[in-house]
Amino acid sequence: MKSLIFFSFIFFGINLYAQVNFDDFFFDKSMRLDYTIGGTGNETTVYFNKLKEEPFWGGSKKNLIDKFNFGYYRILVFDSAGTKLIYSRGFSDLYVEWKDTEEAKQTSRSFYESVQIPFPKNDIVIKIEMRDKQNVFNTVFEIPINPGSVSIIKDKQTKYKIQKLQNNGDSHNKLDIVIIPDGYTESELEKFHADCNRFISYFFEVEPFKTYRNNVNFWAVDAFSEESGTDIPTQNIWKNTVLNTHFNTFGHERYLTTQDIETVRNLAAYVPYDQIYILVNTEKYGGGGIYNCYNLCSADNEYSGRVFTHEFGHAFAALADEYEYGYGKAEDLYDMSVEPWQVNITNLVDFDSKWKKSVDKNTPVPTPDTPKFAEKLGAFEGAGYVKKGIYRPMHDCKMRSNSNDKFCPVCYKTVLEMLLFYSE
Ligand SMILES: [Zn+2]
């Protein structure tokens, strides 16, 4: 029995990380799985909505199996026998954030979600797994799919024009970022293009994007809105916009998101993409970034240039916020018996699994937040929205404040590894 368990472990291990040959399993286009996820703070149910064929696959053809293990969820795609893993990716969503709100203690709620995979040649099985508080993945959804089924929707989107703003070549080995406008009217599209170019230059001022500029493509979809601006519920401002973005998500004034994931995905599908960036036509400070889901940033705030790459740290590399915010106790947000899964925060339960080996032996851990250690890598208390018990790698980082336009070494390394994963 013991040897059988050992054998299964090895077998499963190989399955999880060995890359597969794209052309054996996939066509060069994509399939989208849309579903509704809902529940209460304690339980989760997923309901299938639809499958859609989309014209482009913007992802890597080489790195089909996720090696990062980031995100609150992962999608696993198996061959028809259900034994060979042929695609996987970690991701997060708004639902998992909602589960920590006061509302989740009183009611149930559902959210529309969507994931994109390369279009399979043969029958597949898709599983969606969700982490529990101890970081163990449990299956919350499973569906067998016949790619020849007539129920797969094949509508083509043609209403809007597209722009290739930064062209460095074949999307399969570039990181492709699609910018979608929200709250720009048709007559404001010129402003949208100028805003895009301004943000692209902000983006390439930050390392590692500056050095690896040639690994990145930028696209824009000219989707205009009925009205200019966005919803600001606390000021009773409501705008009819193409992506229905709004501030005050879960009661956080500056948290800018949209729950209209279906429209977001429909518009992104005009081009090959790895990351979706929603640029919101407002001066109000704010943004949002959800891992492998979407990024949002307001276009005209004085800090927007810095917010743009901060949010990208969340949505692209699953980085945690390194600041404190409102929550008193770490126990309210984290299971303190295991390390948080985010690469740039630690509760020191297993610091070896994080960045301990990069910390100078003369730097104490925890590290005093004093001028002496301001430029040192260490473990500084106060991160991940709490003051006590969660530690960050440096005094300051792009994931902590806008006074710094640099990623700390831990965040930098993760962003670079992710960039290379998408552009190999
Ligand atoms: Zn950092």
Descriptive report:
There is one protein chain. This protein is an alpha/beta fold and 424 residues long. Among the domains are: 8-145, Peptidase M64, N-terminal domain (Immunoglobulin-like), CATH 2.60.40.3250; 162-318, Collagenase (Catalytic Domain) (3-Layer(aba) Sandwich). It is 19% helix and 28% strand. It contains 8 helices and 16 strands. The protein has helices spanning 2-17, 22-25, 94-98, 103-106, 189-203, 261-268, 304-317, 409-423; strands at residues 26-39, 44-54, 73-79, 85-91, 109-120, 124-131, 137-145, 162-166, 175-182, 216-221, 275-280, 287-290, 294-298, 324-327, 380-383, 385-392. A 6-stranded mixed β-sheet has the order 8-10-9-11-13-12, sandwiched between helices. β9 (175-182), α5 and β10 form a beta-alpha-beta unit. Residues 322, 344, 393, 397, 399, 407-408, 410-411 line the site of zinc ion.
Provide a short characterization of the protein structure.
The chain is built from 8 helices and 16 strands.
